[in-house]
Design goal:
The chain is an alpha+beta fold. It is 49% helix and 8% strand. Among the domains are: 90 residues, no CATH class; 150 residues, NADH Oxidase (3-Layer(aba) Sandwich), CATH 3.40.109.10. The chain binds flavin mononucleotide.
Length: 347
């Protein structure tokens, strides 16, 4: 009350001086903008709570991420070209110790992450025949490898590395998918079949991610009342939100990351996943529209409550999904000239 009275009288006092009035308006805008920097504080708190691995925390989320992170160093090391040399002392030890923790926690040995770890350890042990570890490290490495590999007696289902497959003749299809994909804001009242959604999500899961940790999570909403509640927190769906019978919320699990140096990875990884998903949906005749998640921390918390989202998941974006109505229009949305965003260095 006092603040608005004070500001009102300042506005009145500077009215006869247009240049002062402009500067005052700029200043007010900047103060509002600067105040939003406080939002970073909630990111810091979130990172401190969830982006941290420790031996004391053997939850599935952290253990599986750490296991992927460590054995990925070995699986990619096995593919490095050029003269072969010994590599991977620390990651092989770390992977073996994580495999042991996995076993102690009783997690499934049929889990794709565990199977991947074991198949990598097996390939790494074979590679040691060619490029042995030094005499000091060899006994420990072999002892750990033997004990891990004796955990599974099953015949290997997969092997790593594999030959790279080059894609031929798909440019036309891919370019058409990219051209035809548009943000659609007019949807028919046909419900999206869940199996189709499942298929598209499975394809999108092939997206790259930092050390293959696949931190993305997808929450699927099909209940009209819940969709309405979720959309009420988002500022970019007016005029078409009510037409949606499927809403996705794409999140990233912060527990996949070891510390705050990885603070951007949730957005990068889940963003790549989102793009693949959008194209996979388009390839199946479904339309979509990304819906920004540029909200204040209290709105984010409310979305977590309404959407039953775990607190360790960061919302990356909402995604509207559906069949475009037959008469749907899309804006042309021109793209910048390629030359304006591409810089060729050193040529
Ligand atoms: C992260 C992100 C957030 C977006 N948020 C919204 C939104 O809230 N509402 C909306 O109608 N469109 C939204 N869009 C869609 C963009 O407006 C659209 O992608 C852009 O204008 C290009 O058009 P096109 O997707 O049809 O090629 C968003 C897109 C992205 C990538």
């Amino acid at each position: 009350m006092l603040k608005s009275m004070l500001l009102g009288s300042v506005d009145w006092a500077v009215k006869p001086f247009p240049s002062v009035q402009h500067r005052l308006t700029d200043w007010k805008t900047n103060v509002k903008r600067w105040a939003k920097l406080k939002y970073f504080a909630s990111d810091v708190v979130h990172a401190k709570r969830f982006m941290f691995w420790s031996e004391r925390d053997s939850s599935y989320a952290k253990l599986s991420s750490e296991l992927l992170f460590q054995f990925h160093k070995l699986e990619k090391g096995l593919c490095i070209p050029g003269k072969k040399r010994f590599f991977g002392r620390d990651p092989v030890i770390a992977t073996c110790l994580l495999v042991k923790r996995w076993q102690e926690r009783g997690f499934s040995m049929q889990d794709p992450v565990f199977i991947g770890a074991v198949e990598t350890l097996r390939a790494y042990r074979t590679r040691l025949d060619e490029t042995p570890a030094n005499a000091e490290d060899a006994p420990l490495i072999h002892r750990l490898l033997s004990s891990c590999l004796s955990l599974t007696t099953e015949a290997p289902q997969f092997s790593t590395p594999q030959a790279h497959r080059r894609t031929e003749g798909a440019a036309d299809v891919f370019d058409r998918l990219c051209r035809d994909r548009r943000s659609v804001r007019s949807y028919a009242s046909i419900v999206v079949p869940l199996p189709l959604l499942h298929e598209a999500i499975a394809t999108a899961q092939l997206s790259p991610s930092a050390c293959n940790r696949q931190p993305w999570r997808v929450h699927v909403y099909r209940d009209a009342a819940q969709i309405k509640q979720m959309l009420a927190l988002q500022n970019g769906n007016s005029g078409f939100g009510h037409l949606l019978s499927t809403l996705l919320v794409i999140c990233a699990d912060s527990r996949s990351f070891f510390d705050a140096s990885e603070r951007h990875e949730p957005y990068v990884d889940a963003g790549l996943f989102a793009m693949s998903l959008i194209l996979a949906l388009q390839a199946r005749g479904l339309a979509s529209c990304c819906l920004n998640w540029c909200v204040a921390p209290d709105v984010d918390a409310e979305a977590h409550a309404r959407g039953e989202l775990p607190e360790h998941e960061k919302v990356i974006m909402y995604l509207a999904v559906g069949y475009a109505s037959p008469d749907a229009l899309v804006p042309r949305s021109p793209r910048r000239d390629v030359g304006s965003m591409m810089t060729i260095h050193g040529a």
